[in-house]
């Protein structure tokens, strides 16, 4: 197990591609209450009101929905060097990209399944204008008076042709710990939840039921309170944003979830509590045997509805439609 | 419209039949936190901690699940006489039953679809023992330290071969107001929500998809807070009480709901907020045109999962099984 | 007791005077999410998103904070005639004012303590523009994406030199029922909670500790969910709106409350649940003996902080300052 | 900064002394829903339903309320050796105590202010009996049907004559990070919040306003949901458990809190959310300048009531009484 001192420390941001920039922006800004930090070319940079850095979401205009990249922050400047050294040995490294809006140089690479990622150390901190400054000194800015505002970026979830391949890479190269796992018929690994913090996951890897490689499942922002999931669901119903599932509670991770499709076509999870946290330094991976019917059902949904078929087949990029999109 | 002064004032209690008394009692007492008031023959009398009367639930041992009766309280002693007078003209009256545990004489009758009901005036008030007395003077007793305690009885829901028949009877004989209505193909009435208070319903009538007459759909107890629905769902999942649907929010009545089957086989709704209240004395019935797809979907589920087929076909008495029952 | 058929049916709206129109409007619209219906002269008309009528709040520019008037809706057109007949016998009637924005002719009068009131029958219903129309047929418009939006008007609270005088007037002339009461040393009535619906109050009357007559204590809008009180408190703290007390729970009425001062100087209550509801047609008034220390404490605060001195002395109009006002 | 690999990993358990064992047990078991693991001599061992180890609370009968000890778990077996090595250099080490119920050998020491502590590696894991086993594989047992059950142990808070002394010891010897800090007149440190995880604190150190040394302020169990704080406050009010403050929200740590006194006299915090989490590996300590009035007020209470004088003066052991104690 890689020491935490030389591993990834956190999820820094994600870049999502959208073919409907205006509507995606409306969703993230007016419904989820994100704040715009900057614009640059075809990208708009956003953050939640408790995100401390320049941005946690880069929205980029493109022909179709998809993942631009996932950015991880290293545990230290030294850790970044160690990480890039390890990445270079994998053949998956793509070299350095120069510093850009909101952060310093980033080392680009792909997961074994092809998900574009980067790791970086230097970050730009958000500085509130006097008007937005909060008297709450540990809050980067006042709570927005827009939509049902999410508090911070939480995690990403990717689909993979080989769950084990991506999972081992995240553990052995980037230093993640395997917290929970779904194992199916014949011991096939069909899902993995990994983290470098006491949260159960900063990244989940799930088997792509379509057999495609390198697709993105969802990005999750955090509310912390179940009532806000209910509020978000009410608002999404009223403004005709497609709800895929929830509010409900997964068995895996014990997360209270709501899954919606942002108007550009990417699935977004709204996360309504903190699930449970893992402080045990000697944690034994929780294994769900999904060949067993109870585990199959309870791991997906502990209570609150069910997960529709699209949950296992829809990822971005995709040729599937995800239901009515507000125009 | 019958003046409120000579109509029913409220739902007083309901009697449910159960073939598994011990388990039903465990569910209502240990999971929902009801308090036992008395035992008599094959019946156990229970109430929620904010119910003011002797009991709101009479559990009676029987060969199979079913509705014993629904009891309404008249607006006054005079109103009771007026109501029984009107009932006698319908041919549905069955005469007086003498006072029993918790209330005075009750006039027995059936709805046009055959649901057993009674109306009464005199009630016995619950008196807490010194140990259970609350310093909160408007709370009949201390909040129980058992389960996820419901606060009070809320409403009943019955299935009917003819929704219109039962609905008109409730309006014209008992004085209810029609608050919401579902109308299907060719103007057929498939659901009606009626009340004598600002709540949207003390009784709902829904078409029985199986064509059976006089069946019972559910009894609802009230929490008031959505978090308690989440808590109840968590506890029901843990103790293997079958959850049929929810937590979710109906369009009709705007109720936050959780539907479970108590171990005896009766569907019980746990009600997580107050929905909306109607204070307009000139209220126009909200009509959902369920031949229209949007109304069909939104009236059933505004957000949060979906209603399974059993919701439309399962009532008590029944020959259907309702999933795993805890033994 | 006056039959409900010839009494007041509900609180229709209130008019508040403000010396800081822009800031008051910002508070009600951007923080509480009210919607503007119309402007007329020095008044702006607003409603919450679940209010069915044209407006529930009329904000009027004036030299200082105060109550413009409280408007009650009669139970029917006939009830309005009965009510005005009774009002004329009291000597407190002031005659008819013609129909205005949002409602028909209103009969003006004052409470025995001098609070300006009116009673009316004809109301204008709000009609949402296509863009704001909700698919939820019992919701007058989409839920706003602004602030922490309140759902509907709930109640008013007035200060009085003589609680008994105002209380008896509300009962004997307007048809209210006395739900709860605080009685102090020597049997002096120091507070009364009255309603015509199962809610514990549409109006409360509390003794003015300063001995002034005819002052206004607060207007209450309803959330229904405790989390929204917490959200509102967080937002008020962030935007430097003065919080007087709460979130907390009163013993009287069992209400979850948050009291803030809108920037014009009027106290506004945000109401976080429904308290308890009274369905018993034979309700015995809950009497709190506030000469008794337990009742004194528990009736004010059941849990959650305490009520500061201003709660008993500050009313509008006032010469007192209510703490920092956002500029 | 000590690498996380050779520091403390988490708070393992705490031992509290109580002069009223029966009532303390009633409070922790019946009100907070803790489960009894074992009894041994004058001690009862308890855990919350999401605690993974044998116990997180050891209640020990004694002449007066006080702290028995605080137990930390090291990051690994090797880390335990490194930690004890460092502790020995401080002169505060007291040597090894043999393994006992629920854990292996523990190295005993005192903080510079005299708080009894220990650090250990080997722990016993709780194993649910078949009846209590949950189908939720990451939940150690079914959720109890007793009281308002807390989910897990969260943190401890100690009073100190010298905040800086204890704070530096926690950082330099045990590996904690300083997350937030209150600094008063002339730069005196009056409070410090430290953690080894993304939580803002596993331990807080506050200046003892009475000048006493080595006293204990409170133990905190975690709910995660604000509604449960409201429930706990309601239940404590009903069962006459003294509430000192809350529900409210601190500025420091952004915690939703409720402070009560367990019947033995120890202050217990119930923690209603997760506050905010710190993932930034380069976190700059949040400093509140409490010589400044805004910081003084906002750091203590962001919203929700106020902290009474006892919050700064009452610690255990104590000669103060903490209000009515249920008998």
The CATH homology group name of chain A: 2,3-Dihydroxybiphenyl 1,2-Dioxygenase, domain 1
From the structure provided, what is the oligomeric state, counting identical versus distinct chains?
Answer: homotetramer
The coarse silhouette of chain A is: globular
Low-pLDDT windows of residues of chain A: 323-327
Give the termini separation of chain A: 49 Å
CATH class of chain A: Alpha Beta
Q: Could you give the count of β-strands of chain A?
A: 17
CATH architecture of chain A: Roll
What value does the Rg of chain A take, in angstroms?
19 Å
| Major β-sheet strand ordering of chain A | 14-15-16-13-9-12-11-10-17
Number of helices of chain A: 6
Largest interface: pair, residues per side: A-D, 48 and 48 residues
Count of distinct structural domains of chain A: 1
Mean pLDDT of chain A: 95
Outline the structure in words.
4 copies of one chain form a homotetramer. Chain A has 327 residues and is of the alpha/beta class. The first copy, chain A, has helices at residues 21-31, 77-90, 163-172, 226-238, 293-300, 310-313, and strands spanning 8-18, 35-40, 43-47, 57-61, 66-74, 93-97, 106-110, 116-120, 152-160, 177-183, 189-195, 203-207, 216-222, 243-249, 256-261, 267-271, 286-289. The longest helix of chain A has 14 residues, at 77-90. The first copy, chain A, is globular and about 60 Å long. Mean pLDDT of chain A is 95; it is low at 323-327.
